[in-house]
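Budget justification, computational time. The allocation requested in the original proposal was used primarily to generate structure tokens for proteins on the priority list. As evidence of use, we reproduce two of the resulting records. The first is shown immediately below.
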Amino acid sequence: MTTPRARAYLARIGIDEPVARNVEGLEQLQRAHLTRVPFDNLDVIARREVRTDIGWSIPKIVDRGRGGWCYELNGAFAWLLGELGFKVKQLGATVLLTPDPMERGHLAIEVALERPYLVDVGFGDSFIRPLPLDHRGPHDGGSGSYSYEFGEEETTLCFDGPDGPEPQYRFGSRAFSVDEFVEQSKHKWNDPQQKWRQKPFATRLLDGGPDRVTLLEDRLKLRRNGEWSERPVEPGDEWERLLRQWFDMVP
């Protein structure tokens, strides 16, 4: 039996039937979340408050119909999975896509089923189905191939690019609470050099993926059948209209 709050969350991501507590059910939930709840920086750009606790993130996502970044999205999703009976661990990850990575600047999720899986609904255009954590890979991420580099203390998630592995983020095995990401969240919110402060963006899957829509400051991008197309967008009224049309949000 699910609680009323969990049922409201499931309705927010378009699920109105029981979800199996297995990897197929986990993938259903991940794809639904990535489709209905955008990954965006709109509150950061607007200089509105953001927090890491689920007392903040769940009402923002469920009641206000907003998206957010990893601390909000993965923190709330981890709560939902726990409410549905999944065994969940929150991971502290270091994103490796910038020259000067912030230690433990990303929150990811591990789910233990018959084997452990890496799950993420707060990393933008990335894998869209659970990735087994007990085998190097390659693994079908639903939007591309992924593999791991196993170290003595940490594991690195890699995208299998045409020129070889492209490191995405590294993480250890220790469980983290959302409270342990408060300082990282504040730093990203406050630092004008962070990409989160530079230009607005919002992105989500279309119909469970791998098709995707991404709205940037000056253009709209669509991925259909593996091919990207884009068109310019004028700031102001047109940008806000497209945000409502594709994301059901206002700035």
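The second record produced under the same allocation is shown here.
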Amino acid sequence: MSKTISIDVISDHVCPWCYVGKRRLEAAIARRPELDVKVTWQPFQLSPEMPREGRRRVEHYREIFGEERAEMIMGSMKDTGIEEDIKFGNDPEAMSPNTLSAHVLMLWAREDENVNADEVAEKLFHAHHVDCEDIGDHAILLRIAREVGMDDTGLADKLLAGADEEKVVDLIRESAERGISGVPFFIINGRYGLSGAQPADALVEALDQIAAEDATNN
């Protein structure tokens, strides 16, 4: 039996390239079905200063990139999304949320052996990027929790009280201390780092190299 290859994916759900990176990682893993790959989703916040109620996405993007560049970036992401079967939405009223609560939900999914954390990640990405929903809204998060079979008893109260937010902040801090300043970022077996939404071919090459090293060391 092959050794498990662990991949920590550091990402933020509002990052379009993180969604693209997820698709490419899935494609790479699918091309190596003989490998035992365990993916763990780790938090990151591109805009930790974002108000908890969020801001209109159009305004947020224009503030960061300028109006002309923001339009170019959004158009380019639509083209990239088509290649990865992601239909990026373009609702002018869409929000840029504070993603701390979404990362808390992701943390709870990771800790619940009865929940598929990859499915939660997909739903959060899809809600934000395709359906243009506000994933800073606890009602949206609770709906996603129910959809994946999470026990939602007391979940609304826990989100409102900010339960486990410090845990998430600590995880983000740990990534920063490792020098990670942009996402997506992939850490394989705790020692190999890949930055950016790597093409599936590059990820397959990395998996093959690590699998070969594991075989040699056994």
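A brief technical remark on that second record: Residues 200-217 form the longest helix (18 residues).
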